Amino acid sequence: MEGVFSISTSSISIPLSSRFTYPSCQPKPSSLSWSSSLPNLHLSITIPATPFPNRLKDCTVSAAWTRRSRGELAKRPNRKSWKQRTDMYMRPFLLDVFFSKRFIHAKVMHRNTSKVISVASTNAKDLRYSLPSLTDDNACKVIGKLIAERSMEADVFAMSFEPQRNERIEGKLGIVLDTIKESGIIFY
Fold first, then answer.
1. What does 94-157 look like in DSSP terms, one character per residue?
2. Helix 171-182 and helix 137-153, axial crossing angle in degrees, nearest 10
3. For 114-130, what is each residue's pLDDT tens digit?
4. Distance, CA of 88 to CA of 86 (rounded, Å)
5. What pTM was estimated for this model as a whole?
6. How far apart are CA 182 and CA 141, in angstroms?
């Protein structure tokens, strides 16, 4: 048997033939496609003969898989982007450094669980009395070295640092970050 396909409009008819014959004595083909399971298939497609611009008005194509439609954007205007939602899983450990007038505080925390991995501060008892100044460049180097050592003890060898708005990586902050990098921590 022969499957016949035809495309017809009010003025045009195009027959198409295809062979889907399978004798009953032979086993079915090993293909798992849907067309191999339908040996006797008769399809006909009719397209009305209308002018080209009118067809476009009747046929509307909408995107099936968009991330956010306009209606969804109006419902949830503050929804985070894909990068904002997945960044905590791609870069889980975050370094936070705070400089006050009297002390320097630094901590590494896990973003997803908010668990603090390592902490170093010049306000701690072991550093407060041993350092001559709690805010100078030497104190920044000590804090960077302590953060790196304590993070490696907790099996954290890579972390990220996100500067706040209008925060430049220079001066004391640059010294802390450079000391952490020199101690073997990778920043991503």
1. EEEEEE-SS-EEEEEEETTT--EEEEEETTSHHHHTT-S-SSSHHHHHHHHHHHHHHHHHTT--
2. 40
3. 999 999 999 999 999 99
4. 6
5. 0.57
6. 10
